[in-house]
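[09:14] KT: can someone run the structure on this one? pasting the chain below
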Amino acid sequence: MATTQRRFLPGKKAPPVTLMRVLVDTSSASDDAARFVYAVIAALGMDIVELADADDAPYAATIQVSGSTIVADNKQWHYPDHEATFEHWLVTTCFPRSVDPTVWALVQTGSERFKMLAAAMAYAYQDQGAVLIDADATEALSRSILEATDDAIDILTFDLEMPSPHIYMLNAPTWEGVTMLLQVDRANPLNSVLLPETLQAAKYHFAHAVIDCGADLFLAQRLAAAGSRVIHIDDGARPLYVDLTPHKRINYFSHDIPPYGTRRDFEFIMHNTRRRAGMRRWMQRGDAT
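[09:31] RB: done, structure tokens below
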């Protein structure tokens, strides 16, 4: 991910709306440590104020770098050993935490699928803050959305030098009010092997995270064990030897999914707002209610 050269196109996520400034003293810093601190602050969309340019206005954080040691708020980190913990501290210090976030996971094991259902689930919560994460190995959802938008949505690449999932969450593109972490060619481990870390960051920044698991019941099982609300759709054509107790289990042939969720037209899902309340009620109503 090009964290220091951020491009924002129409319809995509703008830089975080913030007046947050970070006061930085790197007068005695090593070049590598200084570059790292500057890169992290810039990637998070905050303004850098050098000590020589300081004024009396408030700062979200004050950071001093001496050699390879980073000091802030009576804490210190050594570069490069503590990159991730420093990034986490800066995010949790400067950005508000979402209150009572919910993770929704969709798994479909039938021979056919409602290919835009995960997108509809995310757009149902568009006004509350939602992120859509494609964790399906087939990438069917990502490819469908990219086709519908003429490939206009950025796909974030993974930067080994800037691996914090928080940075990706704050830089992920937004399309019609929903943040999207799509994938192509399984290039980003945040959608797969690093998904637990991705979800921790998503829950920090968004009220609702929607994960498309494709047909991966084992992934859905792990997500359910971690507290996600799993919606499982199956056609009953074959036995499934996975111990999964979902929030909601749906029979493909006798489903009660709102029409908003069964549409295959991404344009309709993006722009139709009247049916989102019904979609939310359907999602919230579990098997036990």
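[09:33] KT: thanks! The chain has a mean pLDDT of 90.
[09:34] RB: yep, looked fine to me
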